[in-house]
């Protein structure tokens, strides 16, 4: 049952350029996985899903590396720093859930903005945003794409379509750094990680195909808001 749910989560999140770390964490909490295994397991699944999506989007030449490079330059060391901080279990879930709900509210308020109207991305600002997102990503262990997407759209630095392609490599980089960081805190993934990873990859393949061929900007925004709200409520109430 867990493998099937992981595949479904991966499909839904990959369709909007996300890896599913937030929902993976909620699912693992539901099945009673220990807190010391949850964060590294979710990050490991993020790496698998985001690696495939990054490869596919980059092959289709839809990743805007001009925006992504300065984001990664500052987010990766900040994510490592955040990953070395271990929060109390209740504080960790509450913080992550509240941030996701805030992100969904921002997305809803920005629903009337034209999808193709994109502003210049000031270098200092984008580096600062990358550092902030990386730190939050490291603290929560969700990879960062779920924070990156509403930020880029709200600041009008990328269209919804562009954001879908930017999120996987951002998630891949920060999840990899965070995954390594968890070992320094004594946290290790579930022994069933390989089995979960196969399920997540299957869902990612289907979800990325949906993203590339089926969704329009309005559909992307709607699904992203929905997964933010659901995951946020789950974590706050957990």
From TrEMBL:
Query: Highest taxon of the source?
Result: Bacteria
The UniProt entry's GO CC annotations, sorted and at most eight, read: plasma membrane
Family annotation (Pfam families) = TauE
Q: Identify its membrane topology class.
A: Multi-pass membrane protein
Q: Where is this protein localized, as stated in its record? A: Cell membrane; Membrane
Per the annotation, which location comes first and is thus the protein's main one? Answer: membrane
Ranges annotated as spanning the membrane: 41-58, 70-86, 92-109, 121-149, 169-186, 193-212, 218-237
Q: Note whether DNA damage occurs among the keywords.
A: no
InterPro entries reported for this sequence: TM_pro_TauE-like, TSUP/Inactive_protease-like
Is Protein transport among the key words of this record?
no
Q: Give the keywords, sorted.
A: Cell membrane, Membrane, Transmembrane, Transmembrane helix
Which family does the record claim for this protein?
A: Belongs to the 4-toluene sulfonate uptake permease (TSUP) (TC 2.A.102) family.
Q: What is this protein called?
A: Probable membrane transporter protein
- Which organism is the protein's source? Bradyrhizobium frederickii
